[in-house]
Amino acid sequence: MDITQFVELSIGRWRSQRSAHHLAFSHFEAVQSVIDIIALSPDAPAVIALCKSYNIDRTQIVSPFQMTWEGQSDWDEENAEIKGSSILVPVPDPNVPHRGKLLRDQGYAETVAAAGDYHLTEDGTFVLLTTYDRAAAEEKIWFANPNLRFRVSFIKTSGGSGVVTASFASEIRSLSSNK
Q1: Which of 28, 37, 53, 129 sits between 20 and 30 A of 88, alpha carbons compared?
Q2: What own/partner pairs with CB < 8 Å and gap ≥ 24 does 45-49 have?
Q3: H-helix or E-strand spanning residue 8
Q4: Among candidate residues 18, 7, 40, 14, the one with its CA nearest the CA of residue 165
């Protein structure tokens, strides 16, 4: 599987159940959410702006997409709502198959623009490593079948020596027309 195939397989609406262990707070969190992943044109203004911010020529990119999410967390008694959106632009490495950069207008561990390094393993697992100022994130996503995928993520200290948060999510594609 290459990055284009991975993105194409990811397009759609996903219902997600995520369990997160926040080790620094000794807290377990359960999150239910809906994730929408839509393909974007390489000519979309947000894609152009993101490429410019990283000095990336648009001829180097493939399969840009937008991911939006909305969910509920049991972190506090009021069931805090979680919402967000991010533009993501894969930039494959022309010299190393199945590797590249993933540009994002908003990161996972910190809400700032971020560029992570990705690779796809032989079994089709997408692995993303992103270093931020105060943390590092590692995420793995794989498909059990076209409508079921799993995601594991770790937020580590900036030096990578300690895990702050570990999470596991199962995501099921919504096949119904009524979202």
Answers
A1: 28
A2: 46/87, 46/105, 47/87, 47/89
A3: helix 3-10
A4: 18
Other CB atoms within a 10 A radius of the CB of residue 20 amount to: 19
Q: Which amino acid is at 43?
A: D
- Each residue of 83-140: pLDDT tens digit? 889 999 999 999 998 999 999 997 554 567 889 999 999 999 999 999 888 888 899 9
pLDDT in tens, 55-64: 999 999 999 9
Tokens 């194409």 sit at which residue? 8
Q: How far apart are CA 52 and CA 28, in angstroms?
A: 39
Residue 71 CB neighbour total at 10 angstroms: 19
Q: What is the pTM of this model?
A: 0.89
E-strand stretches of 7-92: 12-22, 27-39, 65-73, 81-92
